[in-house]
Design goal:
The chain is of the alpha+beta class. It has one domain: Outer membrane efflux proteins (OEP) (Up-down Bundle). It is 66% helix and 9% strand. Strand 5 and strand 6 form a beta hairpin. The N terminus and C terminus are likely disordered.
Length: 421
């Protein structure tokens, strides 16, 4: 039985993988054929399609309308009263009626209008801060999806390198088997490893396509584009420029200011607002007219709004404490993200400086030694696996670094401008 027969038997799995891949292509999965999309391109495309940003804009418009409404004065009222009509004796019919018409206006003596307007302004500030959080969260999610796509493409490259190396070794094994320097089992084993590498490439291509499709969902597009890999290998220590006030802290402080403004509103309501009235009274029996004025004010006997003031004060204290707690949590998260970045950067440096060069040298020596009969095929196999593992470990460390850096940027509000820097 020839070596090729063993090869065909060993490559049966690769043929199955190829069939699976072609079946997926028949269902609409195609390789990336479009142009390259950078992270900034992904940001620009996604921001125009994000419903959450439209919702944030609508919320800002609603808050602005709330300020305008809060600044409106109280409406006046009119009052009409008909007296001494349809009675008995002298007041039979309508000849002795008296009609009174008054114009009434409640005066906000406690500063209610200014207080509620200021409350509406503070509510608008909180809404704007919340909208900024939504925007930064969206950009963070997009960058995480972009990093996943970069990792998938890097893993695909590693799988293709593994396949190329496996094929080169398989050719060497085939020559040695043909020369009767190795048994037929060596050829069968090497071709099986080629088949495994081909299956790994097919799986990596599917993962790469899936990652690009998931990224493109942010702008309702397709995954027929290439990812910019230049930033994936960049682990330079560039200082992240964050906002002067982190997004979540900005929301918390806006909520605190809103709570304090609510105290002012409740205190203003504690002041009793009088109502003044002025009008005319008409006497039908002699057709005379007289001017009338009035003044009324509620009595704060049962309710002076003190409980509402106390509640608003307590809510303000809660908001202040929650702001402090949030600040400490963010500081811990920032420290953790920086630590993860440093750990990943050190791992990448160690892989680049020691692990990968050693693994590549081991592969070259094992291949050369095997071709000359100085090493066994198992030595070559171990060297191949070590090199592939080193490449995948590097990809994992790069992803960890970029995800930690992205988390740090999100915590510090580094997406304020929406750029990828």
């Amino acid at each position: 039985m020839s070596v090729k027969v063993y090869r065909y038997a060993a490559l049966f799995g690769a043929a199955c993988a190829a069939c699976l891949s072609s079946g997926q292509a028949a269902h609409g999965q195609t390789p990336a054929v479009g142009g390259q999309i950078s992270l900034d391109d992904a940001f620009a495309r996604s921001l125009g399609e994000a419903p959450i940003l439209r919702a944030a804009e609508a919320a800002r418009e609603a808050a602005a309308a709330g300020v305008r409404q809060a600044d409106r004065a109280l409406n006046p009222s009119i009052n009409f009263m008909l007296e001494n009509a349809l009675g008995t004796g002298l007041y039979q019919g309508i000849d002795g009626t008296e009609a009174t018409f008054t114009f009434n206006q409640t005066l906000e003596w406690g500063g209610d209008r200014e207080a509620r307007t200021q409350l509406a302004v503070r509510q608008g500030e909180r809404v704007r801060a919340t909208g900024d959080v939504a925007r930064q969260t969206l950009l963070f999610d997009i960058e995480v999806a972009y990093i996943r796509a970069q990792r998938a493409q890097a893993d695909l490259l590693a799988a293709e390198q593994r396949l190329a190396l496996a094929r080169e070794v398989a050719e060497t094994v085939a020559r040695r088997v043909e020369a009767a320097r190795d048994p037929l089992l060596a050829a069968s084993r090497s071709d099986t490893l080629v088949a495994e590498a081909e299956i790994a490439v097919a799986n990596a291509r599917l993962a790469d396509m899936t990652a690009r499709n998931q990224l493109a969902m942010y702008w309702s597009g397709g995954g027929d584009f290439q990812i910019d890999m230049s930033t994936f290998d960049d682990v330079s220590a560039v200082e992240i420029e964050g906002a002067s006030l982190t997004p979540e802290i900005a929301v918390a402080r806006a909520a605190l200011q809103e709570a304090e403004a609510r105290i002012a509103v409740e205190r203003a309501r504690s002041t009793l607002d009088p109502t003044v009235s002025a009008g005319l009274r008409y006497f039908r029996n002699d057709s005379e007219v007289a001017f009338v004025v009035g003044f009324s004010i509620p009595l704060g006997v049962n309710d002076n709004n003190s409980a509402a003031v106390a509640r608003a004060s307590a809510e303000s204290a809660v908001a202040r404490i929650e702001t402090e707690v949030l600040q400490r949590n963010i500081e811990r998260q920032v420290a953790s993200a920086r630590s993860q970045m440093n750990i990943a950067a050190q791992e990448i440096a160690a892989i680049d400086q020691r692990l990968t060069p050693a693994a590549e040298e081991a592969v070259e020596r094992a291949r050369a030694g095997y071709a000359q009969g100085g090493f066994s095929y198992l030595d070559v196999l171990d060297a191949q696996r070590a090199l592939t593992a080193a490449r995948l470990q590097r990809n994992s460390a790069l992803e960890s670094y970029h995800r930690a850096r992205t988390a740090l940027k999100r915590l510090l509000g580094g997406y304020a401008s929406g750029s990828a820097q």
